[in-house]
Amino acid sequence: MTSLTSENRILIVGNGMVGHHFVEQLHQNHPAAQITVLCGESRLAYDRVHLSSYFSGASADDLALTDADTYREWGVEFVTNAMVSDILREEKKVVTEAGTSYGYDKLILATGSYPFVPPIPGNNQPHCLVYRTIDDLEAIESSARESKTGVVVGGGLLGLEAANALKEAGLETHVVEFAPQLMAVQLDSTGGQVLQDKIEDLGVTVHTQKATQVIEQGRQARYRMVFADDTFLETDMILFSAGIRPSDQLAKKANLQLGERGGIVIDDHCVTSDPDIYAIGECALWQNRIFGLVAPGYTMARAAVSHLTGGDTVFSGADMSTKLKLMGVEVGSIGDAHERTPGAQSYTYFNQPEGVYKKLVVDGAQKKVLGAVLVGDTSDYDTLLQYALNDIALPEQPESLILPSSDAAPSLGADALPATATICSCHNVAKSDIVSAIDTGCCSLGDVKGATKASTGCGGCTALLKNVVDSELEKRGVEVSKAMCEHFDYTRQELFHIVKVNGIRSFEALIESHGKGLGCEICKPAVGSILASVYNDYILKNEHLPLQDTNDIYLGNMQKDGTYSIVPRVAGGEITPDKLILLGEVAKKYNLYTKITGGQRIDLFGARVETLPEIWQTLVEGGFETGHAYAKALRTVKSCVGSTWCRYGVQDSVKTAIDLENRYKGLRAPHKIKFAVSGCTRECAEAQSKDIGVIATENGWNLYVCGNGGMKPRHGDLFATDLDTDTLVRYIDRVLMFYVRTADRLQRTSVWMDNLEGGLDYLKSVVIDDALNINQELEAQMSTVIENYQCEWKTTIENEASRKRFRQFVNSQATDANIQFVEERGQVRPATEMEKKLGSNKAIPVELV
Amino acid sequence: MTATTQLAPQWCDLCGLEDLVENSGICALVNNQQVAIFTVNIKGEQQIFAISNWDPVGKANVLYRGLLGSVGEEIVVASPLYKEHYSLTTGRCLERDDVSVIAYKVRREGDRLQIAIE
Ligand code: SRM
Ligand SMILES: Cc1cc2nc3c(=O)[nH]c(=O)nc-3n(C[C@H](O)[C@H](O)[C@H](O)COP(=O)(O)OP(=O)(O)OC[C@H]3O[C@@H](n4cnc5c(N)ncnc54)[C@H](O)[C@@H]3O)c2cc1C
Ligand code: SF4
Ligand code: FES
């Protein structure tokens, strides 16, 4: 074991992710160390793992892991563009290509790896590229600008990521793979096929079992790739991603021991065959294995630092399980995915229609998890990985671990994990580290993150970390608070009562008397909604304005690029030809994307904030009102055509739908509310999937309550039958107002009902039998709300001061230059970051009218 | 150690004080940079903050339309797109170490608001 003195010169060759991690760790453990870094690239270390985000807009700066100032502050000397060409072991120095030499006492090789380019004739032409560095990305970007088609050679993990980048760049994209399947290292053949189907659905063509013989000049495109089976593919650019090879040339020249197929041989301390030279990261070979992931490289860096500074951390291999999202397709692979362990057995779940495939590999005795393959749904990954890593005993029916939402599925609680369980593999944080962080005073998720760095890497462990932290805190009797947020120790329902009982009319007054701090995006809108339900003031009165989410302030839903959507109310889905024409004219004039919504009305997308008042002025003049698509309020009342036209209809469902929509429009609630009215039992309006559903009978109306679609669909419960219209309306008044008063924030009626003690019967007793003796009050409150209804857009455009809020800039007429559109299927859509970068020909700035 | 020279900031006109909206944000264009300006009422006193308007996560110019509030002692705006919090005093993103926004100095000058360009 060595002990470092401040005279020792530590020289690091290579400043990739692992080389940088070494510098950081050494500096932290031994601030006096004399560190020099020779960096082959033109820039200091950056995040290679997230390289692809460059194509979705991240800049080289965003990717940087460090900068010159930080290194200077740490006293680390560094030279960029310094490729080392020789190591002179006797003289203990290295020489760069430029001829400069640097002495060392200890030398660290962190030279990483380079992309393997198969020896195909024609592989060195200008548009034949690789994907490893920021410089490569710049080359790809400029080649893409002059290309229509792109081919990625290699269907492994990196190849598919590269394919995604080409697709984002707007190229017609192909993947050519030599093996019979994609991601052959991580997936079995069925998994590979499911992945291939999904990727092809996204518009990337996959060619498997194709061996490229030669790349020659193309007829239609720049190049023609000719395959061994005499077929060919034409393309303008080619990206090689056929595997990586360790950068071991330096070590080879210096006669360090290498593996048979390359890689610098290291021991558990990352020491090479020369005791003064270490190798870490992707250039290193440990027990005949190369580790092509960043986490094992980091562990090597820590082992090397530990050896240098007299610690006892060693490198003892690493788990190569991976979970990732490729073009939106979830893929996971754990341990022995290929069932290579003797006696291994497997369970599979294959849902072809939905493209979900899961395989669980267990040992012969069915006692433990050896591996898994997950395609299309990786929600079981964390649990399975913990089983595999910690040898946790399998449940009675191991298949329950991969079957969808079977109630039998035992969820692996945080308590079941052993103390040694790795929670965050990026930063090597075990459950015991989290427990001791909490023991030494951390009392929130944020504290634990700060103290352990857990979940600050790839982020994949966030949910698991939260479970462990919550459960540990609860064990210590830390109350898991039901408070709305850090500013109010009350639930929404409690605040509602406080507001009502004390007649409080503003957020300031409420936080002054019952809260603390300045509020936040959770409590402000919730209080705004309570104030609106109790008093139904104009929502954008100056004092209420700061309480609203931006959607409510600008009376439209913000889209991903900062523009807004416009959804006028079309009560019951009934619309006149003139109104349809007006919508069309407005959309045309302002170049808006037009779509029929799932709520029987029309959405116009892509309006810049400053055009909203003008657009709504036109709409309001044409007889439209706001549709409250932005608000936690009544959305739509869907209807079917009903007895007026339909040969089966038994009541006028359209009229009832329109009347109900007009009655409750503008009502603020804990969450959005949706209705539907069907004209007969055929139920074409899908009323049973709504918060309030009404279905016509021979004798009147059946009322259903508390249904919804969305994330967790729930059918409505039959509440009362054969009601006349007046009774129907009275019941709805009461149900809704009771919901508004008692539900929690962002609780839809379905969840409210499921949590209501006594459930449906209780609700019936309150609404029908007036068990609480509050029906009069509920109805009175509803009529106040109804009487005070105003179209927020009409009020806004009539008020000069309100209109001013819609300026993009207070000091300029300019427009936001980042908002750019491209045309697709005859309409606009937001340009992708890549399209914006490529600029000019593709992205079309929108003309202002 | 080499001595560092501190350049005096250059103050540029931003907007009128009457353009500010209490407890809300507005946006101004300075040298082609979008600046989000917030007025926060803290214990009865009106304080003004300015940060860049670019949301580095959502990749859109929208921060001025976010909700204001506090997280612990920190005065923050929540991005209207994905709700990350940015400190109005330092520009730090509370949820993510890898992104941040620029925080600018501002001052009142008569009935105008000025911003420091360094
Ligand atoms: C535009 C529209 C999709 C479309 O193109 O058809 C849409 C768009 C959005 N929906 Fe929806 N939903 C739309 C119909 C629906 C429907 C169908 C329906 O209403 O019959 C559902 C399922 C029915 C239901 O809600 O029970 C639906 C279930 C959701 C959910 C899940 C709610 C749940 O309880 O699980 C969300 C998320 C949420 O509200 O938290 C959501 C949220 C959203 C948001 C607000 C997401 C967002 O924050 O950007 C979208 C805003 C769009 C915009 O800018 O206007 N949308 N959404 C539909 C507008 C209907 C309308 O005219 O107002
Ligand atoms: C697109 C892409 C996506 C990836 N995704 C993931 C992922 O999701 N998860 C994961 O764990 N891993 C991923 N990886 C792999 C991960 O990036 C590597 O494991 C990690 O970067 C290895 O770090 P390293 O320092 O060993 O090598 P590198 O990061 O390659 O750094 C080596 C550095 O040494 C320099 N160098 C080489 N020779 C010399 C010399 N003679 N003199 C001076 N300098 C030299 C090189 O220029 C380079 O800068 C991905 C890689 C790529 C390319
Ligand atoms: S389903 Fe999702 S993507 Fe589609 S509109 Fe609704 S929220 Fe948006
Ligand atoms: S596993 Fe990547 S951040 Fe924890």
Order of helices and strands of chain B: EEEEEEEEEEEE
Please name the CATH architecture of chain B: 3-layer Sandwich
Number of helices of chain B: 0
CATH class categorisation of the largest domain in chain A = Alpha Beta
CATH top level assignment of chain B: Mainly Beta
Largest interface in this structure = A-B, 40 and 40 residues
Oligomeric description of these chains: heterodimer
Chain-averaged pLDDT of chain B? 88
State the share of residues found in helices of chain B, binned by percent.
under 10%
Radius of gyration of chain B, in Å, reads 14 Å
Name the CATH superfamily assignment of chain B. Answer: Rieske [2Fe-2S] iron-sulphur domain
* Topology, number of strands of chain B: 12
Record the strand order, biggest sheet of chain B: 2-3-4-10
How many strand elements of chain A?
Answer: 38
Quote the beta fraction of chain A: 15-25%
Question: What is the alpha-carbon Rg of chain A in Å?
Answer: 32 Å
Number of helices of chain A: 26
Looking at CATH, which topology of chain B would you report? Rieske Iron-sulfur Protein
